[in-house]
Amino acid sequence: xxxxxxxxxxxxxxxxxxxxxxxxxxxxxxxxxxxxxxxxxxxxxxxxxxxxxxxxxxxxxxxxxxxxxxxxxxxxxxxxxxxxxxxxxxxxxxxxxxxxxxxxxxxxxxxxxxxxxxxxxxxxxxxxxxxxxxxxxxxxxxxxxxxxxxxxxxxxxxxxxxxxxxxxxxxxxxxxxxxxxxxxxxxxxxxxxxxxxxxxxxxxxxxxxxxxxxxxxxxxxxxxxxxxxxxxxxxxxxxxxxxxxxxxxxxxxxxxxxxxxxxxxxxxxxxxxxxxxxxxxxxxxxxxxxxxxxxxxxxxxxxxxxxxxxxxxxxxxxxxxxxxxxxxxxxxxxxxxxxxxxxxxxxxxxxxxxxxxxxxxxxxxxxxxxxx
Length: 372
Ligand code: TYD
Prior knowledge:
Layout: E1 16-25, E2 38-45, E3 52-54, H1 60-64, H2 75-89, E4 98-101, E5 116-119, H3 123-131, E6 136-137, H4 143-151, E7 156-162, H5 171-180, E8 182-193, H6 195-200, E9 213-214, H7 217-225, E10 229-237, E11 243-250, H8 257-277, E12 282-285, H9 289-298, E13 305-309, E14 319-320, E15 325-328, H10 332-335, E16 340-343, H11 349-355, E17 362-366, E18 369-371
Parallel strand pairs: 4-5, 4-7, 5-6, 7-8, 12-13, 12-16, 13-15, 16-17
Antiparallel strand pairs: 1-2, 2-3, 3-9, 8-11, 10-11, 14-15, 17-18
Helix pairs in contact: 4-5
The structure holds thymidine-5'-diphosphate.
């Protein structure tokens, strides 16, 4: 029986014992009463990355080929899935693709009305999904399968992996595979039982050979980082005695931030200089700190902008530093009427445009640049 040599995430060899269960049968392999095979069950903690895991890896074929867990049996699971699909569907259309790894009997994918693909190795469970007309590959997910899908142009907007990460011996292969089938702007949604709940609630009976790993946030951050992925949001859920839902994306690319900032700058300068040349009067709205940064970075000052208005009494009568722009009460707009108002406090653009809806000229919002 393969016993791990080190932590499944960071390979650290110094693993600390948390609980020794002794010898245990494969508890989901229901049988006809014969004496079952037993395997050691030992829960350990990796002090380096924080991953809690069991030391034995039972070959997955022994555990998952014929499977007795049908997710659709639970109304709680169905409700939970339906709600999530509704939320995610807001950003999807008929050109999207949703892939679920360990799609079980189609309990989740059945709620989507965009193209879906399930991947489920337990043939008796996958069959139920296929009968419901949910396209399903009856295979274990791996880097090889991910590469095959990728080479066929099968890339996902959303990849679901719910209650499967804990079952995976080759975590790195699995996560790399998810990355390979994810579109550049795609989203991976992962649900795992949360170690905190297991420990706090003394849920020691949720440890068995199917569950190789017991996740908390720190080791997951490390695992994804190693594959160029990052957690962009997370929630704690009540389901399965307490779970974590992670939203994961390709790592942010900081490399072209300067180019993108300069693009904002160039577009804004081009517009304002052109309007000024045409003899238009331009003022700015909101003496916000970010407004000062924007104008400074773009090299726009009192040559282009006549004045600034802001509703904050304490700011009125002062100048925006380094720009030579005096701040007035918004009533000034009616006295010295501009043709355009550049909204510097773009975080309140809707509120400002609503408030000044009498204004007949154009509101310029700097990023993305538009005139309303
Ligand atoms: P703020 O959101 O505090 O941005 P920063 O953190 O970059 O300084 O700035 C918003 C500014 O806009 C603030 O000075 C108040 C002003 N403001 C108005 O003048 N009128 C409005 O209707 C609103 C909503 C804000």
